[in-house]
Structure formats: C-alpha cells, structure tokens
Amino acid sequence: QVQLVESGGGLVQAGGSLRLSCAASGRTFSSSAMGWFRQAPGKDREFGAAISWRGLSTYYADSVKGRFTISRDNAKNTVYLQMNSLKPEDTAVYYCAAGTAVPPRTLSQVTSWGQGTQVTVSS
Fold first, then answer.
1. Phi-psi category of residue 66: left, alpha or beta, with phi > 0 → left and psi -120 to 50 → alpha
2. Which residues contact 20 (CB under 8 A, 6 or more apart)?
3. Per residue in 70-106, pLDDT tens?
4. Residue 96: closest CA among 50, 54, 35, 51
5. What does the pLDDT look like over 36-47, one tens digit per residue?
6. Which of 118, 117, 91 is nearest to 13 (CA)?
7. DSSP label at 26?
C-alpha cells in the first residue's frame, strides 16, 4: 500500500497559480497510477486529474482541462498538480490518490488517499 502526504495548498487570488505536491512512500508507487481529486464544501468528492504509472498518459476533468497539469517524478516518489488561472470555484480540499495500473478517475478506483490540502481562491 502507498502512503500519501500532500503539500502546497493555500490562499491565492483568482487568476493565480499554485503547485500541489504529493509525497508517496511504499514500494508500489512507481507502478501505481496516481490522481488528484477535490471536495468543495457541501459537495461530493470529484475527479480532477490522473496520470499513468509511467507518466505517459494524463486525464483531466473538463472543469480543469487546459488550466491544471498533472505530472510525476518516480525517482522522487512524488506527483504534482500545477494549477494555473485559478477560479473561486476551484476552492476545495485537494486529495492525492493512488490507484492500481488503471489511472483513478472514480472513487472506486482509488486504493489509497492522502489527508488532503486546502486550496482557497479569493475573487
């Protein structure tokens, strides 16, 4: 099993940028597809972005496509989420997620969760 710890959240003005990091421990990280989900207050947790285990394939929710970029560095056991052109509706707790060989795009495809990091975008 992979243990995940997110960092990089914070408060940013609309139009600004943040980069989230997710440090993973465990022998299976380099063979695990990874993803980012988010949960806004009063809403369900939703898919944001995912990346294959080698980093060759990426997937995005329509709401973040063109603004967010997911990447990974298997040598550092870390996955990143670069978030640009942030909007107030991006405000949420962002969770790092590990999957199996399949990039996790639904909650049922996630095998491990991080504790979450708060992102707040002010208008």
1. left
2. 6, 7, 8, 9, 36, 80, 81, 83, 94, 96, 117, 119
3. 999 999 999 999 999 999 999 999 999 999 989 999 9
4. 35
5. 999 999 999 999
6. 91
7. S
Task: Dig out the tokens for 110 from the structure.
Answer: 């996630």
β-partners of residue 81 are: 20, 70
- Per-residue confidence (pLDDT) for residue 85, from 0 to 100: 98
**Separation between Cα atoms, residue 12 and residue 7, nearest integer Å:** 15
What does the block give as tokens for 85? 């052109």
The residues, ordered by sequence, that sit 6+ positions from 44 with a Cβ below 8 Å of its Cβ are none
Distance CA(64)–CA(69), nearest Å, equals 9
